[in-house]
Design goal:
Length: 120
């Protein structure tokens, strides 16, 4: 019984993943092998939302808040901004820094993010 539930859950996950638009499937984990890292970097550079957000954050000296990223990429959709930001966070290309004194938190680029941008 439990074994059949595992297969059913896996089946549901696969179907749900297939229903997502391509831009929402994402990479999410930075690969370990160098060849896979190159493929991941190529996917990031070929994705307009990912590259746009990464470039905007890189150009900012102090980092960008959610609202500033929305303005920088000009897509007028917080959801379409939030998904690529989450993917970039998951990959370790940007990081989120909380301001303890009431200002909005900011996204800043990491060294890995800089290396992906420099190889474009």
């Amino acid at each position: 019984m439990i074994e059949s539930l595992k297969h059913f859950n896996l089946f549901v996950v696969v179907i749900n993943a297939l229903l997502l638009p391509l831009s929402m499937r994402g990479i999410w984990v930075w690969p370990e092998s160098e060849s896979e890292q190159k493929k991941a970097a190529d996917k990031i550079r070929s994705s307009e939302p990912l590259l746009g957000i990464l470039s905007a954050v890189a150009k900012s000296k102090d980092g960008l808040s959610n609202a500033q990223i929305d303005l920088a990429v000009r897509n007028n959709s917080q959801w379409n901004t939030r998904w690529p930001v989450s993917e970039l966070l998951g990959l370790g290309l940007i990081e989120y820094k909380v301001d303890l004194f009431g200002d909005p938190g900011k996204y800043t680029i990491t060294e890995l993010g800089k290396s992906v941008l420099q190889s474009t």
